[in-house]
Every structure is written in C-alpha cells, then in structure tokens.
Amino acid sequence: MPTTTAAASTALAAANSATDDTALLHDLLPEVGRLLDRHLATARPWSPHELVPWSRGRDFVPGEAWDPAEFPLPDGVRSALYVNLLTEDNLPHYFETINRVFAHEAWRVWARRWTAEEMRHATVIRDYLTVTRAIDPVELEEARMDQVASGQVPQPTTVADGLAYVALQELATRIAHRNTGRLLGDDAGYQVMARVAGDENLHHLFYRDLTAAAMEVDPSAMVLAIERQVRGFEMPGTGIRNFTTHAAAIARSGIYDFTVHHDQILVPVVLRHWALESWTGLSDEAEAARDRTLRFIARVGIASRRLTSRRAETSANV
Fold it and tell me: Which residues contact 189 (CB under 8 A, 6 or more apart)?
C-alpha cells in the first residue's frame, strides 16, 4: 500500500498530466480543424456493395462444414484477412478510447467521422470473405464475439501517446491491408483491400501531421511519448484468438514483419517526417528518450537486415 507521500505524489503527477493534456488539446484545435477540412476534401466516397463480387456467392446450408479448398490461400494471407477484419470489428472500443483521450468536441467530430469510415471497412471485408468463403464463417463469428465482448484494445494514457500511437498504427494497418490484397491472387479482393488501404492512409496522414504539430507545441512531451510508442509498439490485435500464431504467419508471409516496420514506418515517419534527430530545446529527460529511440530504431534495422538475409538464403536453397 503506498505511503501518504507516495499517494500524494501520484495524485499530483496525474493532475499535472491532465493539465498538460487539456493544454495540448486546446493548442491543437486550429490544426485539428484544418486537417479535418483537408480530409473531407480528399476522401473519396465509396460504397461497399459495389466492390463485393456477389455473383460468386451461394447460400450456406445449415451445418455445412467450411472447406478451405474453395478458396486456397497461403496461411499468412488467411491469417491477415482474419486479423484485419477482427481488428476492424473491435471498432466500438477504439472509439471509446479515442473519445476518452481526445476529450474535446472538436476532436470528437473527427472521431465520429473516422468511426463511420472504419465501419465501412469491416462491412466490405466481411461481405467479401463471406461471399468467397475465404475464411471459416463460424470461426470468424465466434472470434468476433470473443474479441468485442472482451473489449481489449491499446490504451494510450496521454494525448501525446495517443497521437504517436495512432499515427504509427494507421500506417501499419494501411500497409497490412495493401500487402494482403497483393497476395490474395484475386482481383476483387485486391480492389477491396486497396480501397480500405486508401482510407487508412488518409487517417494516417491526419494523425501524422497532427503529431508533427504537437511536437511544435510541446516537443519534450512528444519525444517522450514517441519513445514509449516506438519501443512498445504492437499491432491492435489484443484479444484476438490465437493472435501470436496468426502474427507469426503474417510475418513469415512478408505482409508485416520487422523489415516492413523499420523500412516503411519507423524510418519514413519517425526519422524523416518527424525528424526526431533534429529537435532542439528538449528537456534532459527528452534528450535521453530520443537517444534511446534512435538506438532502438537502429537495432530494429539490424534485425530486419538479418531477417532479409536469412530469407534470401532460404529461397536460394529451395
């Protein structure tokens, strides 16, 4: 049990964090409005029903066993479809988290728009998978019930952490969707995943640029948050049945692995766009956090090159 002094210190830290969050939210309001206007002007309207190949479907006979031979796919691609959809299905809890972290009505206008667009993704992917029988529909529904009922999602504790996390996560999601579509070997599926990936890219740009604006407002707080989110980054698969097994299959397929994470997320976003190395006027704590982050990214790069080399050797020996 904490001492009175420790409890008071914890309460003070929480109060200071809440004050910092409120100030950051307020300072970013003009940029939120600008980026929302940009998003609405850029986003292309589309309807899920126009992308689903309905003519390829047939009725499901009650009790009929699913046959993976009806739509042969590599394990990693099937796992990616499974994880991608279940992630989209967990939307109610992501919305709840965003509403908690970004507690201001102007931000919630964006959150509601984001939610509407993400719901479209779940609709079109589920309809495509049902029509093509690419995934066992019974297993998928049972997994959806488990995941949404458990309500497990990443929980960034501050506005700074929330911004850094979603900026990285939305790009990771876009890449995963796009790479899954490329490996499907099915034009209709490619079009579905490409359309979803296009939306995810716009979401990433919103959060990426908002994070950059937040770094202008409070660079030290943002550098600390970026370190936490870069070093502890996880795809939003918490709560999904057998997630570790599916994630391993996805990595083996090259859809999302160390190389993708380093080359397509950490380097272009953290090092280039946010220019982590170039920030000045940081607190001592933030300077130390930046150094740790840069060393971590370098280690991920080394691991990714080793992975690429091992795969090349394996391919050469096949």
Answer: 128, 132, 134, 181
Instruction: Examine the pLDDT at 17 and tell me if it is beyond 70.
Output: no
Give the DSSP H or E segment for 182: helix 159-183
Residue 46 to residues 43, 174, 182, 268, Cα–Cα distance (Å):
9, 17, 21, 29
What does R_g of the chain's alpha carbons equal in angstroms?
Answer: 21
pLDDT digits (tens, 9 = 90+) for 109-163: 888 898 899 999 999 999 999 999 999 999 999 998 988 887 677 777 888 998 9
| Rounded Cα distance, 88 and 305, in Å | 31
Give the count of domains, the chain. Answer: 1
DSSP annotation of 80 reads H
User: What is the distance between the alpha carbons of residues 151 and 149, in angstroms, rounded to a whole number?
Assistant: 6
Which CATH number does the domain housing residue 169 bear?
1.10.620.20
